[in-house]
């Protein structure tokens, strides 16, 4: 280029010298300030020419981009202005003007104009390529030398150094495959020979899969969304890419937060993908996104603001732990305590939303769904292991709660009854798509945790299989069923397990533990249970202390044929028992076993019976007749003392049983004994006290 400019300057000089030496007859002389070989840059400009002459003159131009003013004059007007327009051709150009005088002489003034340096490409803010990579070709129209260099992203964006001049070309950039879950960007700088930046190209490559530094969305139209601000996302904003219905908000690094109101009022959004690593969602983040149909909250979220989905009717997939929603309040004693927050509170994340379907794969905090009436369907995945206090209380429209297996459901940690979604009226539990109305535990299950079926109105029967070892607190509280069956392995039951649970029958196949208190205490297995019929199955060998003591609803008891001992107070104060069927292996009825059972009118003691301990039937005021089997060897004090209606006692042993004391029977009961043993009874210790009531009888 330097050679071309030098050659042009020589030609101009020759022309200028020739013009000045021309014989003009009477003469015309340009002033020394005149530029007789003008050179203009690309922007053009002006030159002023003055001269001495005695003749008329005119100026002739050859090209439209060259103007003179005025174009003619006489000896009185000896000045004109040369104007050159800007050069937009992208190459140098030349012309000349001819100054002619009336005496026939003339001057040629050559004009040279430099080209405008250009580096023209399509106006593209960002060049985009998918994760697979490949080649990006950029069409460049230029007339200058330039250099290109990858200034950022040189590990995966590759380009050879390019130099060009006065020609069009393609700039080819090779992009490697992106194997990361993060989109990335590269910059390529084009500079002139002096190193001055001409143009910077930015290339954005998609991630392999979902990108942690992008928020992707779709719209119902072809229009991009309009963000009020790109601040508060935990990183700097890079680009907003949009192609038809699909949009991408790209950030330089990982997006960690969605700020308050970030997508508020974006009514055109139909779907949006929140990237993994987002830890917080601000207040009203999606408020007014009325066309949003579905959204997934990633597992990274730790805090969720108030009224996040206000005005949205969406399907929600929650892979994170939902935080607790509580507020400080002052109680009656003036102390500050945490109080559950209703979902109707504007500070609650669900306030104003209309979520009918929800899938949960994380733990749920206190009051996280409290009083949320729009919810109709809930699916709990394996990650939902703990549901906080009042988590689903008041979800009155909830109809379907689904889990994959009974093992999953029974392993969830429900913090209280209203933490359990099926405690809502009309809610059905579905196990692997099948509605659960009859519970039969599989052999793979050993524990049912607290409140697992509390308040479930649609459970009709409970069968606790032989693999179940423990039942959690309140697990069947407030259930109303036809029958309850307890298997052989059961050894631990939490308080309130059957509180306010009603069943038409209760079958017990395990040896109950020794209770220190009766069923009026919440530590008793059957505290609060209501059942008219109790059956001790064939696997039971011992009915322990206070087994059913204090249950007011029991009307009949069937004791299996393998039970040998009914221990102390086992049925004491079961004031509704009318019928008791004892098995044929029973040997001992313990102290207070049927104490206070004032509705028992008759009971058949088995022939296997050996001992009747003290107070065994004391207070059985409705008992009118009792037969003591022939094998009984011992009757304790006050065994039948409070049986005020007892009129007839058939005592079949041929050897008088040992009486602990005189106070065994009360009232005016007639005691019939074997005729062969009549004298022995009348003379035996403590039996003699009842001699007047003893009568001989042939059995």
CATH fold naming of the domain at 2-113 = Immunoglobulin-like
Low-confidence stretches: 1-25
Specify the number of helices: 3
The profile of the biggest β sheet is: 12 strands, parallel
CATH superfamily of the domain at 2-113: Immunoglobulins
Neighbour order of strands in the largest sheet = 36-38-40-42-43-45-47-49-51-53-55-56
- Overall shape: it is rod-shaped
How far apart are the first and last residues' alpha carbons, in Å? 142 Å
Question: Which structural class is indicated by helix and strand composition?
Answer: mainly beta
Overall mean pLDDT score?
A: 92
Oligomer: single chain
CATH architecture of the domain at 2-113: Sandwich
Residue fraction in strands = 25-35%
CATH class value of the domain at 2-113 = Mainly Beta
Whole-angstrom Rg: 51 Å
What is the helix content?
under 10%
Total beta-strand segments: 56
């Amino acid at each position: 280029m330097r050679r071309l400019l030098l050659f042009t300057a020589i030609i101009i000089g020759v022309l200028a010298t020739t013009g000045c030496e021309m014989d003009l007859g009477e003469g015309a002389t340009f002033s020394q300030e005149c530029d007789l070989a003008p050179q203009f840059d690309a922007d053009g400009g002006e030159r002023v020419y003055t001269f001495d002459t005695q003749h008329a003159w005119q100026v002739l131009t050859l090209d439209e981009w060259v103007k003179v003013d005025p174009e003619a004059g006489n000896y009185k007007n000896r000045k004109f202005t040369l104007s050159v327009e800007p050069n937009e051709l992208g190459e140098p150009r030349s012309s000349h003007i001819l100054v002619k005088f009336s005496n026939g002489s003339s001057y040629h003034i050559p004009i040279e104009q430099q080209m405008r340096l250009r580096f023209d490409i399509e106006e593209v803010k960002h060049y985009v390529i998918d994760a697979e990579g490949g080649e990006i070709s950029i069409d460049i129209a230029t007339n200058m030398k330039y250099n290109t260099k990858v200034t950022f992203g040189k590990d995966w964006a590759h380009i050879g150094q390019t130099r060009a001049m006065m020609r069009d070309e393609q700039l080819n950039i090779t992009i490697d495959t992106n194997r990361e879950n993060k989109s990335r960007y590269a910059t390529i700088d084009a500079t002139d020979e002096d190193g001055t930046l001409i143009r910077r190209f930015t290339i954005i490559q998609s991630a392999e899969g979902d990108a942690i530094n992008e928020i992707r969305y779709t719209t119902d139209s072809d229009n991009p969304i309009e963000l009020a601000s790109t601040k508060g996302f935990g990183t700097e904003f890079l680009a907003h890419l949009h192609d038809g219905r699909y949009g991408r908000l790209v950030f330089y690094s990982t997006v960690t937060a969605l700020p308050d109101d970030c997508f508020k009022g974006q009514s055109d959004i139909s779907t949006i993908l929140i990237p993994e690593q987002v830890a917080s969602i601000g207040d009203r983040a999606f408020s007014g996104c009325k066309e949003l149909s579905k959204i997934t909250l990633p597992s990274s979220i730790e805090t969720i603001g108030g009224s996040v989905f206000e005005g949205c009717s969406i399907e929600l997939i929650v892979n994170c732990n939902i935080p607790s929603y509580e507020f400080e309040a002052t109680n009656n004693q003036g102390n500050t305590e945490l109080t559950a927050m209703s979902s109707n509170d504007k500070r609650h994340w669900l306030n104003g939303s209309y979520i009918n379907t929800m899938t949960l794969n994380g733990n749920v905090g206190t009051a996280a769904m409290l009083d949320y009436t729009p919810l109709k369907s809930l699916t709990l995945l394996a990650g939902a292991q703990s549901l906080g206090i009042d988590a689903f209380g008041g979800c009155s429209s909830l109809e379907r709660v689904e889990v994959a297996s009974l093992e999953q459901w029974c392993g969830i940690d429900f913090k209280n009854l209203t933490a359990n979604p099926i405690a809502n009226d009309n809610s059905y539990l579905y196990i692997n798509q099948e509605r659960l109305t009859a519970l039969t535990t599989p052999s793979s299950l050993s524990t049912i945790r607290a409140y697992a079926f509390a308040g479930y109105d649609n459970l009709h029967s409970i069968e606790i299989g032989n693999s179940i070892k423990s039942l959690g607190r309140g697990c069947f509280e407030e259930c109303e069923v036809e029958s309850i069956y307890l298997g052989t392995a059961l050894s631990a039951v939490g308080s309130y397990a059957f509180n306010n649970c009603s069943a038409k029958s209760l079958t017990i196949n395990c040896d109950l533990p020794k209770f220190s208190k009766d069923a009026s205490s919440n530590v008793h297995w059957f505290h609060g249970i209501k059942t008219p019929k109790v059956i001790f199955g064939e696997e039971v060998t011992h009915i322990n202390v206070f087994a059913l003591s204090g249950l007011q609803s029991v009307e009949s008891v069937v004791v299996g044929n393998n039970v040998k001992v009914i221990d102390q107070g086992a049925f004491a104060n079961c004031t509704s028992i009318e019928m008791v069927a004892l098995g044929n292996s029973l040997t001992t009825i313990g102290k207070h076993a049927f104490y206070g059972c004032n509705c028992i009118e008759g009971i058949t003691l088995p022939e296997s019976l050996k001992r009747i301990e003290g107070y065994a039937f004391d207070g059985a005021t409705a008992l009118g007749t009792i037969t003591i089997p022939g094998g009984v060897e011992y009757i304790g004090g006050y065994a039948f003392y409070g049986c005020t209606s007892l009129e007839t006692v058939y005592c079949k042993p041929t050897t008088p049983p040992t009486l602990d004391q005189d106070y065994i029977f009360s009232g005016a009961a007639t005691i019939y004994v074997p005729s062969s043993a009549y004298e022995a009874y009348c003379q035996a210790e403590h039996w003699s006290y009842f001699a007047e009531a003893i009568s001989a009888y042939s059995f």
